[in-house]
Design brief:
This protein has 197 residues and is α+β, with helices and mostly antiparallel strands. It is built from 4 helices and 13 strands. It has 2 domains: 88 residues, no CATH class; 85 residues, no CATH class. The strands form 2 sheets. Strands 1, 2, 3, 4, 5, 6 and 7 form a 7-stranded antiparallel β-sheet that branches. Strands 8, 9, 10, 11, 12 and 13 form a 6-stranded antiparallel β-sheet that branches.
C-alpha cells in the first residue's frame, strides 16, 4: 500500500502528511496534543477496526486528532494497525493545556439554572470544581452565553460567560480568536463530570 500518514490536529486546521510514524509523533508533540485517551471513528467511538484518529484531554468531540493512512489528497485509505497505534501512544508526551483567563476577561461568570445566583471566578479550574460539586453533568450542547446538560436544559440552562466585575457580558466562552482562548470550551467539556440528578 503506497500511503502516507495524514494528520490534522483541529477540526478546521490543515492536514499535514508524513512518511513514517516518528515524524508524525514529533509533529504531534510539537503541537502539544497530549496522550491518547481513546481511538475514534469520526465522532463515534471506534470498534478499533476503522479508527480515523484519537481524542486527548485537549482534543475532544469534533476537535479530535485525525490520524490515518491516506492518499495525496488526504483521503482515508486505511486505519493504523494495532502496532502503529501502540507506537503512537508510547511516543506521545503528556501535555495538559490549562487555560487561564486573559486580563481582558476579568472574570468567568456562572449561574446554575434559571433561578440561580451568579458566581464569579478568576480561575477556570475553580469554576469547573464548583460546577462538579453541584453535579451539573456533562455538556450536551452550547447555547448563547452558556450550555445545557442532561440536568439543566431548556430555559433552565447553565449561564457561563466572560464578564467584568459587575457581570456585564464581554464575550462567550471560546468566542475569542486568541490561541489561549480556543481551548476553553474543550477544557470545560473534558473536565466536567458525568452526573444525573
Amino acid at each position: 500500500m503506497n500511503a502516507i500518514l495524514c494528520v490534522r490536529v483541529s477540526d478546521s486546521g490543515p492536514y499535514q502528511q508524513f512518511d513514517n510514524p516518528d515524524d508524525a509523533i514529533n509533529y504531534l508533540n510539537e503541537q502539544k496534543v497530549g496522550q491518547v485517551e481513546k481511538w475514534v471513528d469520526g465522532l463515534r467511538e471506534a470498534d478499533l477496526k476503522l479508527p480515523r484518529g484519537f481524542t486527548t484531554c485537549n482534543h475532544t468531540g469534533p476537535w479530535y486528532v485525525r490520524l490515518f493512512w491516506g492518499g495525496p489528497a488526504n483521503n482515508f485509505l486505511a486505519p493504523l494497525d494495532e502496532n502503529d497505534r501502540h507506537y503512537i501512544e508510547h511516543g506521545l508526551e503528556e501535555h495538559e493545556i490549562v487555560p487561564v483567563l486573559s486580563p481582558d476577561y476579568a472574570y468567568l461568570w456562572v449561574r446554575i439554572g434559571d433561578a440561580g445566583e451568579y458566581e464569579k471566578f478568576d480561575d477556570l479550574d475553580a469554576a469547573i470544581k464548583y460546577l462538579n460539586e453541584l453535579c451539573v453533568g456533562k455538556i450536551t450542547n452550547w447555547v448563547p452565553f452558556g450550555f445545557q446538560t442532561a440536568n439543566y436544559h431548556g430555559r433552565d440552562y447553565i449561564s457561563a460567560f466572560y464578564g467584568d466585575a459587575d457581570a456585564n457580558i464581554l464575550c462567550e466562552i471560546g468566542e475569542d480568536e486568541d490561541e489561549a482562548q480556543e481551548y476553553h470550551r474543550q477544557y470545560v467539556e473534558c473536565n466536567l463530570e458525568e452526573n444525573y440528578l
